[in-house]
Hints:
By secondary structure, the chain is an alpha+beta fold. It has 2 domains: 2-174 and 342-389, Aminopeptidase (3-Layer(aba) Sandwich); 180-320, Aminopeptidase (3-Layer(aba) Sandwich). It is 37% helix and 24% strand. The chain is built from 13 helices and 12 strands. It has helices spanning 14-18, 30-39, 77-81, 87-95, 119-139, 152-161, 186-192, 198-210, 224-237, 244-258, 302-313, 330-335, 358-376; strands at residues 2-6, 45-52, 58-67, 98-100, 144-151, 168-178, 214-218, 262-269, 272-282, 285-293, 322-326, 339-349. The protein has a 12-stranded mixed sheet with strand order 1-2-3-4-5-12-6-11-10-9-8-7. It is globular. Keywords: Acyltransferase, Transferase.
Amino acid sequence: xxxxxxxxxxxxxxxxxxxxxxxxxxxxxxxxxxxxxxxxxxxxxxxxxxxxxxxxxxxxxxxxxxxxxxxxxxxxxxxxxxxxxxxxxxxxxxxxxxxxxxxxxxxxxxxxxxxxxxxxxxxxxxxxxxxxxxxxxxxxxxxxxxxxxxxxxxxxxxxxxxxxxxxxxxxxxxxxxxxxxxxxxxxxxxxxxxxxxxxxxxxxxxxxxxxxxxxxxxxxxxxxxxxxxxxxxxxxxxxxxxxxxxxxxxxxxxxxxxxxxxxxxxxxxxxxxxxxxxxxxxxxxxxxxxxxxxxxxxxxxxxxxxxxxxxxxxxxxxxxxxxxxxxxxxxxxxxxxxxxxxxxxxxxxxxxxxxxxxxxxxxxxxxxxxxxxxxxxxxxxxxxxxxxxxx
Length: 391
C-alpha cells in the first residue's frame, strides 16, 4: 500500500483527509490539524500520512509530530513508562526527542480510516502508516514513538502493526460519553436515571429555570470576545496563568479553522453572558470542547444545564447519537448518565525495543483500571466491570 507524505497542513488534501470517517472524531479532522499546526512550539516538525490503495484512494491516515521536549505535561512518555523500563533507558528516553503518531492534543488519538474497507485492507494500511511513522521518528532522532489516547480497538491495531518492535500498550485514561440518543425528552432521561439521582437532577433543572437565566445557541466566531473572560476565569480557578488575551487568541484560532462546525451554548442573565459551553458537531456526535463561567454570580448548576439538561430537553438526541465529554470530572459526569470508555497509549522504542517488563505492564494496567472502577464504578448507570478493559 502506497503512503503519501505531507510536511505541512497546507499541503494536506483536506477533502481526502476528512473523507476518512471510521470512528472519526472532530479531533482528527483537517480543521483541528490546522489548529495544531498554529500551536506547534518552536523546533517541532510534523508529517501527515495517507495510506492509499491501488487506485490511489485513501484508506487510512496518521498525524505524526516530533518534539524535543514534551508539548504538554500529559504528553510525557517518560512519566508513563517510569518503573516499566530500566533506569538507563528511562533516562535516555527523557533526554532525547520524541514522536507522537496519532495527534498530540485534545487527549484523543486515532488513525482515521475510510468507511467500508475490509479488515485486511485496514490492517495493511495501519502497517504501512506505522512503518512510515517509525521512519519519521528515526529521522527525528527520537528515542520513543508514542500513540496517545487511543480507543481499545485502535490501540490493539497499532500494537499488532508494531509487534516486531515489542510495542508496549498501557491503559491510560477514560473518556466519557453521554448517550443522548437514548432519550426523546427530559422526562425520558429522568426516568432512565436511577431513582436516587432523579430528585437532584430535577432540582438542578428547576433551579436554573427559576433563575431567569436563558441559554442561546450561537457559533464560536460570533462570541470570541464574550467568552474569553469566562474561559480565562475557569483556567485561573484551576491554577493556570491564563489571561483573557490568550483565551481570545485560542478561540479566534479555533473559530477560523472550525467555526462552521461549532455550536456554542451561551448562558445569559438579563442579556449578560455568565457562562458558555463550546461544542463541535462531527458526524453523529457533539464534542464538548470547553466551558467557562463568571464565578462572581451565584451558581445554579449552570454547567450541568448547559452540558446535560438543555441539550436533552431541546431534543439533541433526535439529531445526534452522543455528546462526547472528554476526560476528567468523572463523578459529576457519570452520576448524570455519562458512560466511561477506556483509552490506551502505545509506545515503541525507535532504535531498539523498550524492553518493558511484561509482568509490570500487566500489573499496572490491572491496578489502574481497578482503581478507576473502585472510585467511580458506583456512579456508572448500568454498572461497570473493568475486567473488560484489560488487554
